């Protein structure tokens, strides 16, 4: 029998000892008893393995910058930085989290369509590696700050690519968008940048889509980014130093989805290298990939305790102490059009054979607070545990934690049996 996605993920990333799911070498049952629920448990070993696998696939082509928005906890940022990753941030708060994690300013890129003056002033004065500009107002704003502090600000142009280059579960380009400059306007954008003495044009940044599982779509976007970089370099009349290919590398959340083919990336590296060498203005450019979900997502488990089990008109409901206020994505209210269930297990009943469909809901007074609509689980009662896999990215900080003033979820990082408490439940 073909294993389900849930079974595959458990086998790939974690271990099972008798009835217990183990994360980072420790039973979830024991971690929940000691640290309380709701609780995000992050397996540092899984995250390191994801980083190393991607680094190997990109060897000789691109560098990795961790996208902090996926999970901005300093402990997670520190983990990836210790592996050699730079970081990509989208706010002064993320910048401070990266600095608190020990990341040097010259390893940080700043993108985002609505950077405030105070944010730009702070990061520029601190020596940030690059600011990725996304509007004509921002070109003028960054130039004015650079002139005021006596610096040539290293920057890249973020480009909203043409429709042919888009792809992924959520399209970031190829249509009207607040992100970057339209590709059709490149000549005017480059002219505006080159007219500013306080700006040092270093490269380009494209991000056409997110949650991409098809390697051919991803590679097509990367090739298009190299073509755009070549045109920008020609318009500027100077070599480029960086080509930010964006993130968008996906992970499987739903039955029937596969994993991104890293071997396909490795196979394409020689061709991508050839494209760079073909243009003298790109020969020394440094491509960058900025994944977040791909690196952090599979290492996270969100654990809830059952508060009540009830039957309503033939449907079994499991009411828990967690919900959409901690894990909006798992509820289907963060980008999903058709709501589907994340992979879910009973982490202290992994040996159970008899299961039946259950609807898993949280404590909020809204039908939106539903984390599973028809997932197979054993017979569970009050104080039993439920765990949502693939929860290391876009969880706690991407959710409306203040809604109905429910308690915050705790967070712990576990690696080789050692626990680091990040925030208490």
Shape: elongated
Mean of residue pLDDT values: 94
Annotation field: number of helices? 11
Structural class: alpha/beta
Determine the fraction of residues in helical runs and give it as a percent range. Answer: 25-40%
Give an overview in words.
The chain has 425 residues and is of the alpha/beta class. It has 2 domains: 5-42 and 298-423, Lyase, Ornithine Decarboxylase, Chain A, domain 1, CATH 2.40.37.10; 104-291, Alpha-Beta Barrel (TIM Barrel), CATH 3.20.20.10. Helix content is 29%, strand content 26%. It contains 11 helices and 23 strands. Strands 4, 16, 17, 18, 19, 20, 21, 22 and 23 form a 9-stranded mixed β-sheet that branches. An 8-stranded parallel β-barrel has the order 5-6-7-8-9-12-14-15, surrounded by 5 helices. The radius of gyration is 23 Å and the shape is elongated. The protein starts with a helix and ends with a strand. The mean pLDDT is 94. InterPro entries: Ala_racemase/Decarboxylase_C, De-COase2_N, Orn/DAP/Arg_de-COase, Orn_de-COase, PLP-binding_barrel.
